[in-house]
Design goal:
The chain is α+β, with helices and mostly antiparallel strands and about 130 residues long. The chain has a single domain, classed as HIT-like (HIT family, subunit A, 2-Layer Sandwich). It is about 30% helix and about 20% strand. The protein has three helices and five strands. Strands 1-2-3-5-4 form a five-stranded antiparallel β-sheet.
Length: about 130
């Protein structure tokens, strides 16, 4: 967990293959974006954009993937994933077929440690805090 408020939380997904993978999760059990108020929708998108910006600033990925599927888990959330041309699945989605083996491991290829990435994410998201979040 890198950020938590009454409406939204942000977590880093522990996935050795994709270390720059975060989720922005609605605390309420809603299935669709349109179930939220306009303020809640704006706040959620502000969080998604902020996570993306931190990943871009610190990791300099080839691409950022954003996804909100919810087909299996009907609980509103966004995946924000830093992608690199060297990752095992690039340019395919992280849920697709692997394209290559990665050595050294992905975490060792990052320009900052995961602890430093999480600390920066927490600080930036905390500074963005809003009363409704």
């Amino acid at each position: 967990m890198v950020h938590e408020g009454p409406v939204w939380r942000v977590v880093r997904v522990v996935d050795a293959g994709f270390p720059g993978f975060y989720r922005v999760i609605c605390q309420d059990h809603v299935a669709e974006f349109s179930d939220l108020s306009a303020d809640q929708r704006r706040r959620g998108m502000d969080l998604v954009v902020t996570v993306e910006q931190v990943l871009r600033d610190l990791l300099r990925p080839t691409k950022i993937n954003l996804a909100s599927l919810g087909n299996v888990v009907p609980h509103l959330h966004w995946h924000v994933i830093a992608r690199f041309d060297w990752d095992s699945h690039f340019p395919q989605p992280v849920w697709g077929l692997a394209q290559r083996a990665v050595d050294p491991p992905p975490e060792q290829r990052l320009s900052v440690s995961l602890a430093a990435l999480d600390a920066r994410m927490t600080a930036v998201l905390g500074a963005l805090a809003a009363p409704e979040d």
